[in-house]
Specification:
By secondary structure, the chain is of the alpha/beta class. The chain has helices at about 20-30, 65-80, 105-130, 155-175, 205-215, 225-235; strands spanning about 10-15, 35-40, 55-60, 85-90, 135-140, 180-185, 245-250. Strands 3-2-1-4-5-6-7 form a 7-stranded parallel β-sheet, with helices on both faces.
Amino acid sequence: MINSPNSLAGGSVLVVGGARGLGAAVVRGLVGVGAQVAVIDHESDAVEGLDVTAGVALVRADLRDQQALAKAYEEVDQLLPPPRAVINAVALPSGDEASVEMTESTWRGQVDVNLTGIFWSCQQAGQRMLRRGGGSIVNFSSLSGIQVSRTHRSAPYHAAKAGVNALTRALAAEWGDRGIRVNAVAPGAFVGAAPAGLHGGDEERRRQDDARLATSVPLRRLGVPDELVATVLFLASDDSSYTTGETLVVDGGRVVEID
């Protein structure tokens, strides 16, 4: 039987890192299919682009802190039923720093959020799903976890996101016989996904950078958030009931090497 993402309707879904960017787009998509949604994020008081009357519960926590994240999950437990799906939409943007000059704080800043924070969240989600009898976890990886650019120096970001892919496979193998599926998505270049302040508020520079980036995509355009949301909802829902341990690349074909 083929279901639709509306199989999430009425169910409880937690989005970690869902206050801004692509994570917020996922939250809006979940609200649109009728899910009960909670968000854990480290600093925001609202979900970007979502009316405050939408009924999304938002809890603050430092994703790098195991105990703080455990406490945030406990707060969510008081607000919603046990989650049938947890989406770790965690992606701290990388800088451009030569590895021979990299500081410890730069390395840890990337790895602690982009990999360790996702693991702590998976741990909390796994504990609850094992008691519940199953569920779906979707981790945010990145094209940078699969493909390395010579022009963008970001060793810790590449390493962390490649680690997310391996972590996803490891947890899928460990928990599969207990009914928990663990998958990842690896987004490429999306409209509006660049961190705030990257272009110093210069919209013309942003458009030029987007146009330049689009030339490296076989579809010759950047993705729009809804195109990623559809994949995330597929993995979170029963539509993907026989899919686990996978990293689905959503990048307009950019990972493909062409002349």
